[in-house]
Amino acid sequence: MSWHYTASHMHHRAIKHCRQCGTAVHSRIPDDGDTRERAVCPACGTIHYINPLLVVGTVPYLGDQVLLCKRAIEPRYGKWTLPAGFMEMDEAMDEGAARETAEEAGAEVDIGPLFSTLSVPRVGQVHVFYLARLRHDRFNPGTESLEACLFDEAGIPWDEIAFPTVRETLRRFFDDRRRGSFGLHDLRIG
């Protein structure tokens, strides 16, 4: 599944009815010592929590080049991105990142260390990218990508990058590459 910034899921007011019994919920601070307003069912007492979504992806590289995918879906149709998407149940973060890379780019990678974590509080998402060494330069992009191409730093279409989290991750990748050492980058966007 492709990912994008959306705020519709992130507020407790988006929940109108109890998922347990169907009763219309009330927006209030629960009586359990909580400090945030939540959607609470007046009939069965269920408290509905809204938690951030996790987006997992890779920085697929081969030599001094990085693999980017051109989006075939909205939002940001035709813009370039790193392969990434929502993490699924029953998978680890690195497994999800590898799956998304295979689905979107048709690329075979060896997953490396965690490289960047980017909190995007205004849309209730956390984006996580792993370094991933490409096994070869043959790609077979899936239905969510128009194409998958390798770019060196000078060739990156910086003005055509789909998301700020991708832009910041790419900047950190090339900065670290110049230094000769890759670190872990923990950032907040927006």
Q: What secondary-structure arrangement, pairings included, does this model have?
A:
Layout (H helix, E strand, L loop, with lengths): L25 E3 L9 E3 L6 E2 L4 E10 L2 E7 L8 E2 L2 E3 L6 H13 L3 E12 L4 E10 L10 E7 L12 H16 L5 E4 L2
Parallel strand pairs: 4-9, 8-11
Antiparallel strand pairs: 1-2, 2-3, 4-5, 4-7, 5-6, 5-10, 8-9
Give a description of the structure.
With 190 residues, the protein is an alpha+beta fold. It folds into 2 domains: 1-50, Single Sheet (Ubiquitin Ligase Nedd4, Chain: W); 53-188, Nucleoside Triphosphate Pyrophosphohydrolase (Alpha-Beta Complex). It has helices at 93-105, 164-179; strands at residues 26-28, 38-40, 47-48, 53-62, 65-71, 80-81, 84-86, 109-120, 125-134, 145-151, 185-188. Strands 4, 5, 6, 7, 8, 9, 10 and 11 form an 8-stranded mixed sheet that branches. Strands 1-2-3 form a 3-stranded antiparallel sheet, with no helix packed on it. It is elongated.
User: Can you summarize the main beta sheet?
Assistant: 8 strands, mixed
By oligomeric state, this entry counts as single chain
- CATH class (first level) name of the largest domain: Alpha Beta
Q: Round the mean pLDDT to the nearest integer and report it.
A: 93
Structure summary:
With 190 residues, this protein is an alpha+beta fold. It contains 2 helices and 11 strands.
Key descriptive features of the protein:
190 residues; alpha+beta; Ubiquitin Ligase Nedd4, Chain: W; Nucleoside Triphosphate Pyrophosphohydrolase; 2 helices; 33% strand
